[in-house]
């Protein structure tokens, strides 16, 4: 099939590439010239395991191309995916300006029946809004062209985006016509060979499913974090608690890792967006408000532990911050807990040594460009050099096998604050560290 994907970010690039991988002709469109230039030179603008190889192969086979020309993309496709960003505005309502722009372009350029697929995460009612926008553009052109708007939210996890897209748990598609349903069914056939379901619904329900899914995951994280905080006060080990409850298949073991709160471009944005949408309909999401409140508390936890350890006297200290991306295996630092922590440390005149396997340079450039006391280091060992404390913020695998003896010898102090419970307290203490994890009693 001929497909275009408008918006070539984490979602659009992965979706477009995977659709090409199963044999479709895909045109990925973006307004960001630099990104498209890079892609046309075979350089993947994001760190996502396995993606670069797939892009290269499908470009070579001429099934995948990149352009800034949206008209070209729409003209040459039967299905147009909209995967642009839906960032929050200052009140955490969803800013739909990019979605509107794409819907306008679609209405301006289609010349025969095409399907407009909302892949971006959008609040309930957005598909209806897009239908109106497109129809208005067609009316202006005095064209009687049939089209369908379909909702098809994305559930990929950054760091495993290719795998999640090639073998999804489920595909949710909201449709209003048999024609659109058949086209989507054919497009997704190669992805559900393993027996995973495609669920067809009306067009509003997928909009709600996506927000409900992310808000539920956020709630699970905040829940276990609260249990962890309780474990610290009363004694007890949150890892064992999580295991003990997770084996109940009504609860499940995933997303029960205590830590320093959720970050990234989705969980907070989507939880807040659902809260705001609830308000529009006169509904107060009590659980979601509490989820967010617990998360804000958790994001400060490592800093509070640092303050406690030094009785509030942290001015002039040096902290090695291990991991800045919002989770491992991605370079994405949007809304990462590291941002809040570095800000708190800098407010208290602490020098920060940053190390991350892929994200440190981008993080420094984006958030602390002009601050000479936020220093990027090439290895976690260099970051530890002369540090009074280490804060482990992102659980990259390489930290699990780190030579703790070497680390300890390079440090000035001995505090190891493990925000992701990567280490075993008994093992770490043997090397002379003062160790504190999250909820380990
Ligand atoms: P992103 O910021 O990485 O990418 C969005 C891209 O859209 C950017 O490259 C931007 O330049 C481009 N763009 C904006 N306006 C455009 C226009 N008019 N024409 C063409 N391109 C345009 O965002 P993302 O992380 O890929 O997220 C996209 C959507 O998918 C959001 O709604 C997000 O909530 C949702 N989502 C994201 C994830 C994730 O893990 N990142 C997972 C599921 C769903």
Q: Which residues sit in consecutive blocks of at least 5 with pLDDT less than 50?
A: none
Distance between the termini: 56 Å
Shape: globular
Structural class call reads alpha/beta
Strand element count: 14
CATH architectural name of the largest domain: 3-Layer(aba) Sandwich
Main sheet specs: 6 strands, parallel
- Proportion of residues in β-strands: 5-15%
Main sheet: which strands, in order across? 3-2-1-4-5-6
CATH topology of the largest domain: Rossmann fold
| Assembly annotation | single chain
What number of structural domains do the residues give?
3
Give average pLDDT, whole number.
97
Radius of gyration: 24 Å
Ligands, ions, cofactors? nicotinamide-adenine-dinucleotide
* Helix proportion: 40-55%
Tell me the name of the CATH homologous superfamily of the largest domain: NAD(P)-binding Rossmann-like Domain
Structure in words:
This protein has 441 residues and is of the alpha/beta class. The chain is built from 19 helices and 14 strands. The protein has helices spanning 10-21, 33-40, 51-60, 70-75, 97-109, 126-140, 161-166, 178-188, 205-234, 238-246, 267-280, 286-299, 301-309, 337-347, 360-367, 380-384, 397-400, 404-410, 425-430; strands spanning 2-6, 25-29, 64-67, 79-82, 114-118, 147-151, 171-174, 198-201, 318-322, 351-355, 374-376, 389-392, 415-418, 434-436. The chain has a six-stranded parallel β-sheet with strand order 3-2-1-4-5-6, sandwiched between helices. A six-stranded parallel β-sheet has the order 11-10-9-12-13-14. Helix 19 links the parallel strand 13 and strand 14 (434-436). The termini are far apart. It binds nicotinamide-adenine-dinucleotide (NAD). The site of nicotinamide-adenine-dinucleotide (NAD) has 27 residues, from helix 1 and helix 5. Nicotinamide-adenine-dinucleotide binds at residues 6-12, 29-32, 35, 70, 83-86, 98, 101-102, 120-121, 154, 156, 158, 265-266.
């Amino acid at each position: 099939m001929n497909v275009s994907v408008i918006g070539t970010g984490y979602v659009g690039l992965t979706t477009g590439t995977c659709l090409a991988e199963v044999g479709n002709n895909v045109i990925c469109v973006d307004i960001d010239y630099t990104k498209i230039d890079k892609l046309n030179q075979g350089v993947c603008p994001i760190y996502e395991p396995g993606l670069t190889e797939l892009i290269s192969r499908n470009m070579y086979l001429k099934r995948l191309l990149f352009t800034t020309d949206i008209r070209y993309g729409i003209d040459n496709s039967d299905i147009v995916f909209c995967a642009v960003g839906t960032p929050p505005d200052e009140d955490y309502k969803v800013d739909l300006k990019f979605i509107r722009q794409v819907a306008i372009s679609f209405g301006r350029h289609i010349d025969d029946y095409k399907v407009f697929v909302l892949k971006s995460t959008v609040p309930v009612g957005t598909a209806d809004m897009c239908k109106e926008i497109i129809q208005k553009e067609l009316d202006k052109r005095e064209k009687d062209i049939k089209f369908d708007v379909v909702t098809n939210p994305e559930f990929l996890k950054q760091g495993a985006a290719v795998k999640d897209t090639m073998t999804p748990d489920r595909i949710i598609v909201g449709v209003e016509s048999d024609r659109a349903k058949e086209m989507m069914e054919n497009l997704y056939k190669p992805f559900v060979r393993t027996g995973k379901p495609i669920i067809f619904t009306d067009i509003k329900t997928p909009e709600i499913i996506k927000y409900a899914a992310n808000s539920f995951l956020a709630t699970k994280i905040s829940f276990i974090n609260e249990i962890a905080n309780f474990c610290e006060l009363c004694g007890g080990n949150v890892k064992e608690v999580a295991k003990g409850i997770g084996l109940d298949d009504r609860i499940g073991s995933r997303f029960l890792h205590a830590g320093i709160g959720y970050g990234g471009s989705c969980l907070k944005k989507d939880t807040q967006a659902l809260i705001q949408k609830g308000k529009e309909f006169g509904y107060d999401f009590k659980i979601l408000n509490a989820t967010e409140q617990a998360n804000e508390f958790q994001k400060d936890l490592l800093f509070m532990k640092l303050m406690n350890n030094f009785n509030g006297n942290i001015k002039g200290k040096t902290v090695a911050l291990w991991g800045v991306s919002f989770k491992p295996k991605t370079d994405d630092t949007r809304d990462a807990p590291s941002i809040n922590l570095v800000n708190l440390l800098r407010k208290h005149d602490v020098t920060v040594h940053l190390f991350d396997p892929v994200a440190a340079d981008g993080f420094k450039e984006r958030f602390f460009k002009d601050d000479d006391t936020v220093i990027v280091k090439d290895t976690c060992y260099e970051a530890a050099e002369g540090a009074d404390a280490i804060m482990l913020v992102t659980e990259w695998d390489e930290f699990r096998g780190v030579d703790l003896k070497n680390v300890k010898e390079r440090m000035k102090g001995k505090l190891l604050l493990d925000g992701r419970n990567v280490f075993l307290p008994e093992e770490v203490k043997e090397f002379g560290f003062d160790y504190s994890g999250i909820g380990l009693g």
